[in-house]
Design a protein that fits this description.
- It is a single chain.
- The protein is of the alpha+beta class.
- It has one domain: Alpha-Beta Complex (Peptide Deformylase).
- It has helices at residues 26-41, 122-135, 146-159; strands at 6-7, 46-48, 58-62, 67-79, 82-86, 96-100, 103-109, 115-121, 166-167.
- The chain has a 5-stranded antiparallel sheet with strand order 2-3-4-7-8. The protein has a two-stranded antiparallel sheet with strand order 1-9. A two-stranded antiparallel ribbon has the order 5-6.
- It is globular and about 45 Å long.
- The two termini are 15 Å apart.
- The structure holds zinc ion (ZN).
- The site of zinc ion (ZN) has 5 residues, from α2.
Length: 177
C-alpha cells in the first residue's frame, strides 16, 4: 500500500468522467488499498480515484458506520432530502451546505469484483453520493448556489495561492516497524 498525492481544485482530472472498470484486477485492488490508506491519512470519509489522478470509476467510503470500496457504483434509488455541511479533500478548508437525498440504494462491485447492493442513510449516504459525483467530474461546490460557489472558490484560490494542484498526504503518525 502507498499514499497517493491528492489532486486539488483546478486539476483537470477532477472534471473528467471516470472510465468504467472492465475487470477488477490486481491493479484495481492496489488502487483501492491506496485510496483507503490515503483517505485515512487525510482524515476523510471518502475518496475517489479522480482525486488521486486516476479517471476510473473506483472510490472508497469510510464512516463510523461502515467502510467499503465501490467499483462502477450506481445509485439505483434515492429518496428524501437532507441538508448538511460538506467538505472535500480536494478543496481543503472549504465547506458548504449541500442538499441531497437522505437515503440511497447503491449497486457496485466490491474489491473482488463481486456485485453488491447496499442501503445507506445519513453521513454514509452523503459520502457515497459525494464520491460518485467525483467519478462524474462533479464537485460538492457545484451543488451550491452560484453566488455562494463563486465566493467560496475565490476565497479558496486566494488562500491557497501558489500551492499547486497536487498535495502530498503525510502519514497520520509514525508506523511501527
Ligand atoms: Zn470530495
Amino acid at each position: 500500500m502507498a499514499l497517493r498525492d491528492l489532486h486539488l481544485l483546478g486539476s483537470p482530472v477532477l472534471r473528467q468522467r471516470g472510465a468504467e472498470v472492465a475487470q477488477v484486477d490486481a491493479a484495481v485492488r492496489r488502487l483501492i488499498d491506496d485510496l483507503f490508506e490515503t483517505m485515512d491519512a487525510a482524515n476523510g470519509v471518502g475518496l475517489a480515484a479522480n482525486q488521486v489522478g486516476v479517471a476510473t470509476r473506483v472510490a472508497v467510503v469510510g464512516t463510523e458506520e461502515d467502510r467499503f470500496a465501490m467499483v462502477n457504483p450506481v445509485i439505483v434509488s434515492a429518496e428524501g432530502r437532507d441538508r448538511a455541511e460538506e467538505g472535500c479533500l480536494s478543496i481543503p478548508d472549504a465547506f458548504g451546505e449541500v442538499t441531497r437525498p437522505g437515503r440511497v440504494v447503491l449497486e457496485a462491485l466490491d474489491q473482488n469484483g463481486a456485485p453488491f447492493r447496499r442501503e445507506a442513510e445519513g453521513l454514509l449516504a452523503r459520502a457515497i453520493q459525494h464520491e460518485i459525483d467525483h467519478l462524474d467530474g462533479i464537485l460538492f461546490i457545484d451543488h451550491l448556489g452560484a453566488l455562494k460557489r463563486q465566493f467560496l472558490v475565490a476565497r479558496w484560490k486566494r488562500d491557497h495561492k501558489g500551492e499547486g494542484l497536487i498535495k502530498t498526504v503525510k502519514p497520520e503518525r509514525a508506523r511501527p516497524e
